[in-house]
Design brief:
By secondary structure, the chain is an all-beta fold. The protein has no helices and 11 strands. It has strands at about 5, 10, 20-25, 35-40, 45-50, 60, 70-75, 80-85, 90-100, 115, 120-125. Strands 2, 4, 5, 6, 9, 10 and 11 form a 7-stranded mixed sheet that branches. The chain starts with a strand and ends with a strand.
Length: about 130
């Protein structure tokens, strides 16, 4: 059974940092494209960062570029999202998601490309 467990959220002040983890079971993270999405209250879920399976290329939303870093630890079967210089607008529930094993997708930002989702972890940035 494919499972994703997101963790690492919390409350920080503006300028602070958090590292989110997405622990996978039932499949190998290296074989799937892993995405981090977020959803703020009253807003649609949006893509934040992606790590592609075919070439391990990282992609970031313009709003987080230069502040967030996605990475993968194959030994731990876990994908991380290091978030630095956090701002109030980063406040949201963050979800990790995975594609089917070894599937190459073109619609990286579309939620429908990801059949597997973690439960979400809350990130709150406020002073």
């Amino acid at each position: 059974e494919v499972q994703l467990q997101a963790s690492g959220g919390g409350s920080v002040q503006p300028g602070g940092s958090l590292r989110l983890s997405c622990a996978a079971s039932g499949f190998t993270v290296h074989d799937s494209t892993i995405g981090w999405f977020r959803q703020a209250p009253g807003k649609e879920r949006e893509g934040v960062s992606f790590l592609r399976n075919r070439d391990s290329r990282a992609t970031y939303a313009d709003s987080v570029k230069g502040r967030f870093t996605i990475s993968r630890d194959n030994a731990k079967n876990t994908v991380y999202l290091q978030m630095n210089s956090l701002q109030p607008e980063d406040t949201a529930v963050y979800f990790c998601a995975a594609t089917e094993r070894k599937k190459i997708i073109s619609a990286l930002w579309d939620l429908i490309s990801y059949p597997y989702w973690g439960q979400g972890t809350q990130v709150t940035v406020s002073s």
